[in-house]
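Researcher: Here's a chain I'd like modeled. Treat it as a single chain, no partners, no ligands.
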Amino acid sequence: MFRNILVAFDGSRHAERALTEAIELATAARGRLTILTAIPRPPAWASTPGAVAACEPLAAELERESCLMLREAERRVPADVPVTTILTPKPIRSALLARVTSGQHDLLVMGSRGRGALTASLLGSVSHYVLNHSPIPVLVIHTEEHQAPAEDNVPGTA
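Model: Modeled as a single isolated chain. Structure tokens:
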């Protein structure tokens, strides 16, 4: 059983499902959760000379929104499941790898957008990267839209 579960959370639908699964696993194993949220960086154009003045308020707003999102995720965890929250300014890949290589966790749960191999290779898939670099098991949760119900594949059903 997994007793110390790390869950990556960015507020997306697939991260919401990953959090739900992580909560269920922690509850069943009487384990604990750590919810990690990375503050998104302002877009590259925001660091151009003409946009620098707008970058500071944007960065502050991104941090505030990330903090609110993390607190909302924490509220979803039942009172009998110990939970730790981490809000990090590091890029999500390095933040996750730092946590999983620290030896404090025995499972990482994260969502996946379900991009194809080509799109993931061009845009970069965090789940793919972590799967290839993590020393601990990784549970990747896909959104329901990527899972076709069995009855959709049965001829003659409406």
